[in-house]
């Protein structure tokens, strides 16, 4: 900072010149460097918390002192300007011009200093906030509370709630309300030592609890919430046993918030698991549709070739004059044309297909059926695929019939037995707790005509297996 009455030389900006209150003197000296603030500490870490906080305090003190000095200098400049204006009436020609120039220069200097002080105030405020943040992080890390990656942070629906929960339990730690302990405990007859001992032990036990809570959250799996909650409950019991001497406890409100954080993790993992399962079902459905379309296209190609063959045969027979044989071939040609129309219809009408009702006595018991539909040319191909190596016995077919609105009939049956649906989450799992007889009654009550319907399952391999096991 420039000492009182020493200012930048208007003739040489590299020098300072003495102003005696009325005019410039011939006293000059070299421009002096201003002190610099202490360097800001490096990024905070758990083991450098105290030294970092001390460095921030030094910077805060530096800017506070600088602000006071700059303010005093501004007040001095303002006073000098007032004196200069009072002297205007006493100066003559050239002196008046010199004073006006000095006033203009001082005004510019005042504006510059005002901006500098405003900037210093802003820096000081920011650094005060950083010091507070450093202290806050240090206090949380003292009890092993770190901002680790939480699986629910990627969830659009759960991320906000997770943030709220974390803010709440961090506030409990800052307010020393995450634990409770006896304040009347004494150590070697000293109440002060007893209080220090109890406080340090509470901090140590809370650190152990927080470490276990973080591990439980990272290790939780979809569907494993009860196990993870029990794990954290056991930690609370262990803390209370180890801290019985000072009546140490993890406060219920803090424990409840950490359990909610754990629940949010499991809910997100469960949602991801369900979405993956649904995606697998959607891909399986698309593969089934692609197979049906490929079969229809292949059948259409085969029928077109057969039709062209019959046309050539008819033409050759007529050239030979064999009208009787040509008429027989024309009858076959009509059958082919009807088959082509049927294939074209099924390719164009995606609602047409085969509805099936199947069961698997050996794998699913007597009171469970699967109700679905397929657009495959041979619907039994689909039934056989369902009875692959994933089940021990093949499915038995109770009903398998073509319908122009197979999708509508399938949806009707699904609505009828909605309360008996086995999987309430994945609607593509078309299994129901009901019997073939109940499904038959539902079809008949909705006017669906059936040529064949088998109430009792054949279950040949299952029955033979039971007999072999009892032999």
UniProtKB/TrEMBL annotation:
Domain of life: Bacteria
UniProt entry tagged with the keyword Coiled coil: yes
Pfam family, one: MUG113
Residue intervals of the Bacteriophage T5 Orf172 DNA-binding domain: 363-446
Cross-referenced SMART domains: T5orf172 (SM00974)
Coiled-coil parts of chain: 96-130, 269-334
Alphabetically ordered keywords of this record: Coiled coil
InterPro entries noted in UniProt: DUF2510 (IPR018929), Phage_T5_Orf172_DNA-bd (IPR018306), SNIPE (IPR025280)
Name of the protein described by the UniProt record: Bacteriophage T5 Orf172 DNA-binding domain-containing protein
Source organism of the structure: Litorihabitans aurantiacus
């Amino acid at each position: 900072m420039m000492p009182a009455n020493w200012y930048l030389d208007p003739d040489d900006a590299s020098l300072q010149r003495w102003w005696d209150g009325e005019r410039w003197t011939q006293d000059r000296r070299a421009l002096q460097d201003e002190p610099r603030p202490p360097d800001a500490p490096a990024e905070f870490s758990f083991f450098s918390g105290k030294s970092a906080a001390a460095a921030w305090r030094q910077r805060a003190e530096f800017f506070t002192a600088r602000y006071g000095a700059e303010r005093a200098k501004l007040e001095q400049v303002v006073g000098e300007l007032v004196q200069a204006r009072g002297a205007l009436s006493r100066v003559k020609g050239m002196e008046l011009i010199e004073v006006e120039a000095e006033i203009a220069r001082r005004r510019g200097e005042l504006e510059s200093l005002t901006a500098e002080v405003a900037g210093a105030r802003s820096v000081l405020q920011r650094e005060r906030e950083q010091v507070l943040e450093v202290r806050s992080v240090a206090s949380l890390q003292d009890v092993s509370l770190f901002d680790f990656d939480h699986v629910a942070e990627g969830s659009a629906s759960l991320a906000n709630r997770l943030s709220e929960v974390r803010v709440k339990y961090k506030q409990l730690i800052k307010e020393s309300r995450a634990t409770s302990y006896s304040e009347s405990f004494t150590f070697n007859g000293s109440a002060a030592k007893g209080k220090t001992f109890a406080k340090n032990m509470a901090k140590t036990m809370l650190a152990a609890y927080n470490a276990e809570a973080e591990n439980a959250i990272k290790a939780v799996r979809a569907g494993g919430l009860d196990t993870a909650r029990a794990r954290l409950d056991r930690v609370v019991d262990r803390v209370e046993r180890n801290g019985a001497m000072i009546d140490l406890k993890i406060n219920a409100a803090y424990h409840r918030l950490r359990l909610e954080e754990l629940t949010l993790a499991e809910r997100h993992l469960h949602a991801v698991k369900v979405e993956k399962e649904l995606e697998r079902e959607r891909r399986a459905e698309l593969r089934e549709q692609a197979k049906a379309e490929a079969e229809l296209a292949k059948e259409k190609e085969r029928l077109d070739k057969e039709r062209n063959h019959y046309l050539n045969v008819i033409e050759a027979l007529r050239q030979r004059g064999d009208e009787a044989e040509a008429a027989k071939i024309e009858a076959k040609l009509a059958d082919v044309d009807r088959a082509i129309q049927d294939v074209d219809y099924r390719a164009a009408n995606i609602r047409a297909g085969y509805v099936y009702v199947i069961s698997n006595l050996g794998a699913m018991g007597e009171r469970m059926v699967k109700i679905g539909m397929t657009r495959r040319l041979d619907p039994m191909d689909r039934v056989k695929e369902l009875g692959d190596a994933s089940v021990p016995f093949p499915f038995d077919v109770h009903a398998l019939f073509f319908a122009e609105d197979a999708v509508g009939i399938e949806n009707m049956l699904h609505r009828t037995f909605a309360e008996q649906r086995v999987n309430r989450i994945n609607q593509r799992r078309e299994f129901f707790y009901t019997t073939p007889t109940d499904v038959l009654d539902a079809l008949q009550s909705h006017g669906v005509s059936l040529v064949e319907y088998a109430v009792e399952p054949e279950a040949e391999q299952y029955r033979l297996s039971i007999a072999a096991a009892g032999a």
